[in-house]
Design a protein that fits this description.
Layout lengths: L5 H26 L6 H8 L13 H10 L2 H11 L6 H19 L1 H14 L5 H21 L4 H20 L4 H13 L14
């Protein structure tokens, strides 16, 4: 019998792991968080139910992996659009616009529903997701400190609230251009009086 190399075993493991995460995402998108079971994942992945546990410890691990797979894309989209050499006002607008674009592309509400379901029903946590949201909030806060220190805390909270509202509107089927233009215009309106900042290019 030919010897199977460690590299081949690792490649097979990674392939099956990705297949399971894909299957879990399909279940979550099509049927919602409560439908994610080992049986459903196995059916979509085309493997025996018990085989799942060769690659992940639990179905909740798959729930976390589905969430975490979007973090690098989200970070890359922000880094690509936001020029850290530009002034803080432009960075605020571009960061918000990049987040709205990613929300439109990924469907932010179902990701949130997955996380909330896990938090409500299981001992569920993702350090990576928590770190990403914390870093994004801190980044917004730092930028507003540069723009207007006296109102930075208030404006940063408004910024996050507007972003959340925009994401919900997009999830509800509202037109991206109209939503993003409105959100960006409202943010630009928070800049100190006399600052003439047009919304970022849409």
């Amino acid at each position: 019998m030919p010897k199977i190399s460690a590299a081949t075993v690792k490649e097979h493991h990674e392939k099956m792991f990705n297949t399971l995460v894909d299957a879990a995402e399909k279940v979550l998108r099509e049927s919602g968080p409560s439908a994610l079971t080992a049986g459903e994942v196995a059916k979509y992945a085309g493997i025996a139910r018990n085989s799942i546990y060769r690659y992940v410890q639990s179905v909740d691990d798959l729930r976390i992996h589905v969430l975490e797979r979007y973090l690098p894309q989200w970070k890359e989209a922000i880094d690509k659009r936001v020029d850290e050499k530009s002034d803080a006002r432009r960075q605020i607008l571009d960061l918000t616009l990049a987040s709205l674009e990613m929300s439109q592309n990924t469907g932010h509400s179902w990701l949130i529903s997955v996380m909330r379901f896990g938090n409500r029903h299981k001992n569920f946590s993702s350090d990576a997701v928590a770190h990403f949201h914390r870093e994004l909030g801190m980044r917004i806060a730092r930028l507003w400190l540069e723009v207007e220190p006296e109102n930075a805390r208030i404006n940063a909270q408004i910024n996050r609230a507007l972003l959340e509202t925009g994401m919900k509107l997009l999830d509800g089927g509202e037109d991206f251009r109209r939503v993003s233009h409105t959100i960006i215009s409202m943010l630009a309106g928070l800049f100190p009086e006399g600052e003439n900042y047009a919304p970022a290019a849409l």
